Amino acid sequence: MPVLVMKFGGTSVANLDRIRRAAKRVGVEVAKGYDVIVIVSAMSGKTNELVGWVDEISPLYDAREYDAVVSSGENVTAGLMALTLQEMDVPARSWQGWQVPLITTSAHSAARIEEIPTKNINQKFAEGMKVAVVAGFQGISPEGRITTLGRGGSDTTAVAFAAAFEAERCDIYTDVDGVYTTDPRICGKARKLDKISFEEMLELASLGAKVLQTRSVELAMRYKVKLRVLSSFEEQSDEAGTLVCDEEEIMESNVVSGVAYSRDEAQMTLLSVADRPGIAATIFGALSDAGVNVDMIVQDVSEEGRTNMTFSLPVDQVKRAEKAMNDIKGVSLNYDTLQIEPDVAKVSVVGIGMRSQSGVAAKMFKVLSDEGINIKVITTSEIKISVLIDRKYMELAVQALHDAFGLDKAA
Ligand code: ADP
Ligand code: ASP
Ligand code: MG
To answer: pTM above 0.90?
Structure first.
């Protein structure tokens, strides 16, 4: 039997009615003759609640216990989905990550999938089971402890299963009907794309468009998984939603194809660092040891042997970063003060057309300056430009850039 992977995100399993609605969609695919692997997220809001509890009890938590707690939301929805399907007379069984077993690295809270043995589930399919419901987001480390794959990780579970079982397609059911030129929730003119290239989706995802987890796009690209994003709230045809595919399959595209943002960023500056070889290694080594994911970095020109080092990071890692910097102060690094700006956001424009067309950066900076938005940090790569700005201007920046690059109109 051909295998289909269907992933339902948090809003698509937010309550029993929605689980029933999702189960019906699964039933439709079973009736077409597929063996289906359903990947479920926790009910929407559940993972945030679990993370909140962990933070409250232990701000600098042990990541193994964080995983033990935050993985639990998916266990509930996996069991409920299997029961709902059984009530519909569809033979179904649930699997938690460790039961598969979905083996990951030991990098708790940001683990990577190493292996998905297909034997157990395939044997059940051979015995007549039609649907395997798998708890997304979670796995088991070589040490036998529960791990999680990072926020949004159920997308990655889904694509990894599609690759392992050589599924015909991996359908990601969510609360929007596809991938848009920018988040439709903050820009009314956002336009749904029928197709988007893996490269552009990868950039958009890594720059904050949370519709797909970055790692899921990487895996789909590497294993040539046919990946589709669509709504669980509408009746669907086989052509619905957005197909993430190779660049060659897309006939025309704008120079800029999307705008992404990441709201919850912070900026830290170490003022007056004694400049000498090795300061960057010392600072970023300490941050890395503390589990901080540094993003943008700027080092000022040195004056009289002192310099300033600025970097951005997720706002929820500020406490860890602050502690790491305080710990090395006066020990392996000399600096005057640590300045923290917790209210910044990153806005980025993405497009493979930038490879061949210049002037995109200049236009982006002009648009922001016309809106009176000050740029704090800039980074670029071949197909994207990102700026760090005050968070209060984030939505304005996204809308102005979307307009200026004509993203509401097809190429
Ligand atoms: P799920 O719970 O189904 O995994 P997510 O909340 O993780 O859903 O992702 C879907 C959300 O991603 C949408 O509700 C939308 O607000 C947001 N989003 C951000 N950028 C985009 C984009 N470019 N296209 C579509 N959705 C986007
Ligand atoms: N429940 C997890 C989260 O909210 C994983 C997911 O939904 O993809 O991040
Ligand atoms: Mg998600």
So the answer is: yes
